[in-house]
Specification:
With 354 residues, this protein is of the alpha/beta class. It folds into two domains: 5-171, Hypothetical Protein Pfu-838710-001 (Beta Barrel), CATH 2.40.320; 176-349, Rossmann fold (3-Layer(aba) Sandwich). The chain contains ten helices and 18 strands. α5 packs parallel to α9 and α9 (326-337) packs antiparallel against α10. The longest helix has 13 residues, at 188-200.
């Protein structure tokens, strides 16, 4: 059984002016970090902190206790839920579901004090800037006197910040973003209908061409322009990947190595992957749906067993049977990214529901 250490820390929200002022007080070293946040069974916070200078990920799971935090941590080369340490932790905590919450970038300034480590953080999350002071004790039996004296000397009132997870869940309407992968031969309505409904829900959406040409021609010879090519995107900007159908479009998606790599990245990161019509077959042929319920356009099962339902949601996969299921599919995506009420309001807005 994995062992956890007891961590004790003092946190304080700062204004930009307070943050700038404190930077001058101690000889801080600097780190650049990117934090990937996940929530396990809606109660266990998982974080993969990418340390740019070290090119390593620090995985942490903190469980709040009366005396501090019970903390599990290990260093990894990548975000990898198949790592033996994480698999053992998931088994130990009897976790059934893990979902992606969000990403924050931060610049961390560190100073090693006598009893603990001083940290000043400048976070960028949900397109907002945030400033924090953090003090972590070396020995959980010590007190915060060193940090409290430092803050008092600099006339900083201790204001406990809300957790990143809570803030992400509150601010996610400003954060979630879907990448719609567009290939020549796609079914235009399966792409643009879901795109339109998600936009109405306030979810950011981008059409991404899988070729070097931003102009895509659909199965009905309708041409439209994408905002980026797949080579130009930063995968960390998106929380959901959408694969429209159409036989030729699906073949083009499946035959793209970059598409396969992007799907793998999203699956590994526990982000939502949605597909409709023939496109769920791409996920099945890559081995991702073999243990999941899924639906697909008849004839594209590839020896898999489709439920035949209009829409299926299983773990981080959302699949739709065809164009006729796109309203329900959009509802499922919006409900997952935001909530059911927002999804229903969109369907009422377009007069689909009374």
């Amino acid at each position: 059984m994995l062992k956890a250490r007891i961590e004790k820390e003092l946190k304080c929200s700062l204004t930009k002016e307070e943050y700038t002022s404190l930077l001058c007080k101690l000889n801080f070293s600097k780190q650049s970090q990117v934090n990937h946040y996940f929530l396990a069974d809606n109660k266990y916070p998982f974080r993969f902190r990418y340390l740019k200078e070290e090119d390593k990920y620090l995985f942490t799971c903190k469980i709040k206790l009366a005396e501090g935090h019970q903390e599990y941590e290990t260093y990894l080369d990548s975000i990898n839920f198949d790592d033996p340490y994480i698999k053992e932790l998931v088994e130990q905590l009897e976790i059934k579901n893990i979902r992606f919450v969000g990403i924050s970038e931060n610049v961390r300034h560190l100073y090693k004090g006598e009893k603990g480590e001083f940290c000043l953080d400048n976070y960028l999350y949900c397109e907002k800037e945030d400033y924090e002071f953090e003090y972590e004790l070396y020995d959980s039996n010590d007190s915060y006197e060193e940090a409290e004296s430092f803050l008092k000397e600099n006339k900083i009132e201790i204001k406990i910040p809300e957790s990143k997870f809570s803030r992400f869940l509150k601010e996610k309407e400003n954060y979630y973003k879907i990448a719609f992968l567009c290939a020549d031969g796609l079914e235009e309505c399966e792409c643009l209908l879901v795109y339109d409904l998600c936009l109405r829900a306030g979810v950011k959406c981008e059409l991404i061409s899988i070729s070097d040409n931003k102009n895509v021609v659909g199965s009905h010879n309708i041409e439209f322009k994408c905002v980026k090519t797949i080579k130009e995107i930063d995968k960390n900007e998106y929380n959901c990947l959408y694969l429209p159908g159409g036989k030729v479009g699906t073949d083009n998606l499946f035959n793209s190595q970059k598409v396969k790599e992007l799907i793998k990245d999203f699956v590994t990161a526990k982000k939502i992957v949605a597909a409709v019509c023939a496109a769920p077959s791409i996920l099945y042929r890559q081995g991702y749906l073999k243990d999941n319920h899924f639906t697909v356009y008849p004839g594209f099962e590839f020896n898999g067993v489709s439920t035949g339902n209009k829409v299926e949601i299983d773990n981080n996969f959302i699949t739709g049977k065809g164009l006729g299921a796109c309203y329900e599919l959009a509802e499922a995506i919006i409900s997952e990214l935001k909530n059911k009420e927002v999804a229903i309001n969109v369907l009422k807005q377009i007069q689909l529901l009374d």
